[in-house]
Design a protein that fits this description.
heterodimer, A: mainly beta, 5-stranded antiparallel sheet, two-stranded antiparallel sheet, 7 strands, about 5% helix, B: alpha/beta, 9-stranded mixed sheet
C-alpha cells in the first residue's frame, strides 16, 4: 500500500497514534482508563524508556511489568511551533511541544497545555492530563 | 591492526549543479555524479570494483546500491547502501576504506544524491525515520523541532541567544556568496536573521538548512595507487563514528552529541588535534548544530560556541574557516556529501574560487550528523 506523500514525496504526518504496535498495546489500553504507565524491569528494577520495547534497555531481560506512574514530571526542553506541518494544526499555532521527564525516569514527547505557550519554562513542574478521543487517549501535561 | 591513517586517499571528486532540478529524478542525479566523478578520476565504470550509495528517503528501493551500480553497468565486488542520515556521506568513505583494507575492493565509488527541492514522483513508500508515531500525535513533526529542543537547552544552560546563532548563518552565507554553485547568494546580516520568522521557536527561518536537489561523489583507493591518478590525491587521516541514542526520549544530552566521541576517535587515528585543522566543514542542518559540533570537536569549550562563532573567526581568513562552500544553510542540503567534496577540493588547492580557498590548507575535519541528533561521523582529510 502506498503511503500518502506531499509535493516533495515526503511521507505525510499522521496525527493518530499507531495503536497496533505490539509492545505498546498496554500503554494505549491503560490510558483509556486514565492511567499513565511504563514498563518496569523485574530483573533490574529499572524503568524502560519510551517507546515500549520487548526487553529491558538496561539489562535485556524480557521479564517486565506495566507500572502506573505518578504522572508528575518536569519540562526538560520545549519548543513553540509557529508553522503547521499538518492541516489539523492550521490556525492553532503557536503551540507547545515539550520533552517531559517523568519523576520515575522515562521521558515523553508531549504538550504542556493549560498555560500560554510562551509561559512554559525548562524545569517547570507538570502533571499529566488525559485527552480523550474517540479511539484513543493522549497523555498531555499541565503546570503542577 | 595497525593504524591506517594516510593509507587511503580520495582520487575523484564531483558535485552536480545544485538547487532546483525539476527534470532530474533522484537516480538521475546519482548517475550524473557517477559520470562526473569517473571523469574527474580518469576512470571507466568498469574500473570501479566497490560501490556505496545512500538510501534516498523518497526513492525507496531496497538494494539501492546494486540498482544504481547496475544502471551505470558497474559490477562491483563490494556494494552497500547506507542509511545514517547526514552521517551517511562520511560513513560511505569510511566503508570504502574498510572494504579496501579488507581486500574486498580496490577502487570504491561513493555517491550521495538527494531530491528534496522539487518533487520526485516515485512508486515506493517514502521511508520514515522511525518513531514518528510517538511524536506526531502530539503535533511534533519536524527535524527543526528536534534541533530547537537542543537550541532551547543550549540557551538555558549556557546563555546562548538567537542573535548568537545568527553569526553562524551570516558567516555561512558569506561563503556561499563566493561559491558559483550555491543556491543562496544574497548577503545576509545579523539583522536579516533576527527579522526572519520563527519556524519552531527558538529557531528562525534563517537557522534552517535549504531543501535541495543535487548530489556529490568521491572515489577512494589506496594511497599507493593514488599518485597515479590525474588530480592531486587527498589523504584520509582520521575516521570516527558515535551514536549515543536514537529517539530524543532516550538522549543522554541535547548539548553534547555524538561528535565529542566521534571526533576524539578521528583525532586519535590521525595523531592530530583541533589546533592542527586549517578548516572545518561542519554539518549545519541548523545553526545550533554547527555551534554544538564546534564545541564537541574541541575548537572551544562547551558553552563557548556563542563567542567562538563571532568576529570573523569562522570566516575564510579567520582562525578556523567553517563551511567554506556555504553549507546546508546556504549552498545546498545534500545531507553533507558536499561537505566531504568541499574538504577534498580545498585540499587539492586549485579547484575552488580563489577568494574562498583556505591558504596553505594541509588538514581539515568534516562532520556528519543525522536523525534525532543521534548519529555522528567524523573524517579528517589532509594533503598526501
Amino acid at each position: 500500500m502506498s503511503e500518502p506523500s506531499d509535493s516533495r514525496g515526503r511521507a505525510i504526518a499522521k496525527v493518530k497514534p499507531f495503536l497496533q504496535e505490539l509492545e505498546a498495546k498496554p500503554f494505549w489500553a491503560n490510558l483509556r482508563e486514565h492511567k499513565l504507565t511504563a514498563q518496569r524491569c523485574k530483573s533490574c528494577g529499572k524503568f524502560f524508556t519510551y517507546p515500549p520495547q520487548g526487553s529491558c534497555p538496561h539489562c535485556l531481560s524480557t521479564d517486565y511489568e506495566w507500572t502506573t506512574l505518578s504522572g508528575k514530571g518536569k519540562v526538560y526542553s520545549f519548543v513553540s511551533y509557529h508553522r503547521a506541518w499538518h492541516p489539523s494544526y492550521e490556525g492553532k499555532t503557536p503551540y507547545n511541544v515539550s520533552l517531559v521527564d517523568l519523576d520515575e525516569g522515562p521521558r515523553l514527547i508531549s504538550n504542556v497545555i493549560g498555560c500560554p505557550y510562551d509561559q512554559v519554562k525548562i524545569g517547570m513542574n507538570v502533571e499529566v492530563v488525559y485527552e480523550d478521543h474517540e479511539e484513543y487517549t493522549l497523555p498531555k501535561f499541565r503546570p503542577a | 591492526m595497525g593504524n591506517i591513517s594516510g593509507k587511503y586517499a580520495i582520487v575523484g571528486v564531483a558535485e552536480t549543479k545544485v538547487g532546483k532540478r525539476p527534470d532530474a529524478s533522484t537516480h538521475s542525479l546519482h548517475l550524473e555524479c557517477i559520470k562526473a566523478c569517473l571523469d574527474d578520476a580518469g576512470l571507466k565504470a568498469s574500473d570501479v570494483d566497490g560501490f556505496i550509495t545512500n538510501q534516498p528517503l523518497n526513492d525507496a528501493h531496497r538494494s539501492y546500491a546494486v540498482r544504481m551500480s547496475n544502471m551505470a553497468r558497474m559490477h562491483p565486488n563490494y556494494a552497500t547502501d547506507l542509511a545514517l542520515g547526514g552521517a551517511t556521506p562520511i560513513a560511505m568513505v569510511q566503508n570504502a576504506v574498510m572494504a579496501i583494507e579488507a581486500g574486498m575492493a580496490n577502487t570504491v565509488l561513493c555517491v550521495h544524491a538527494r531530491k528534496r527541492g522539487t518533487p520526485d514522483p516515485s512508486p515506493g513508500n517514502p521511508i520514515r525515520h522511525g518513531d514518528e508515531h510517538w511524536e506526531e500525535p502530539w503535533g511534533h513533526f519536524s527535524a527543526v523541532a528536534n534541533h530547537a529542543f537542543a537550541a532551547q537547552r543550549h540557551m538555558h544552560d549556557f546563555g546562548t541567544t538567537s542573535e548568537d546563532l545568527a553569526h553562524v548563518a551570516v558567516a555561512t552565507r558569506k561563503h556561499a556568496c563566493m561559491n558559483g554553485n550555491a543556491t543562496m547568494r544574497k548577503p545576509m546580516t545579523v539583522a536579516d536573521h533576527q527579522a526572519s520568522r520563527f519556524i519552531c521557536e527558538p529557531l528562525r527561518l534563517f537557522d534552517c538548512a535549504l531543501e535541495s536537489d543535487g548530489g556529490g561523489a568521491v572515489i577512494v583507493t589506496s594511497a599507493e595507487r593514488a599518485r597515479d591518478f590525474p588530480k592531486k590525491p587527498v589523504a584520509i587521516l582520521g575516521m570516527g563514528q558515535h551514536h549515543p541514542h536514537f529517539s530524543l526520549m532516550d538522549a543522554p544530552s541535547l548539548t553534547t552529541l555524538g561528535g565529542k566521541n566521534s571526533s576524539a576517535l578521528a583525532y586519535k587515528m590521525a595523531g592530530l588535534s583541533p589546533k592542527d585543522m586549517n578548516f572545518a566543514e561542519i554539518y549545519d542542518c541548523f545553526t545550533i548544530t554547527t555551534m554544538i559540533t564546534l564545541e564537541d570537536y574541541g575548537f572551544c569549550k562547551k558553552g563557548e560556541g556563542k563567542d567562538f562563532v563571532k568576529n570573523g573567526r569562522i570566516e575564510i581568513g579567520g582562525e578556523l574557516p567553517v563551511n567554506t562552500h556555504g553549507g546546508l544553510l546556504s549552498q545546498a542540503h545534500i545531507e553533507g556529501m558536499l561537505h566531504v567534496t568541499e574538504a577534498a577540493r580545498q585540499l587539492r588547492g586549485n579547484e575552488v574560487e580563489p577568494e574562498r580557498q583556505v591558504k596553505n590548507a594541509k588538514a581539515g575535519i568534516v562532520s556528519g550528523h543525522g536523525g534525532s541528533l543521534c548519529m555522528h561521523a567524523s573524517l579528517i582529510l589532509g594533503a598526501l
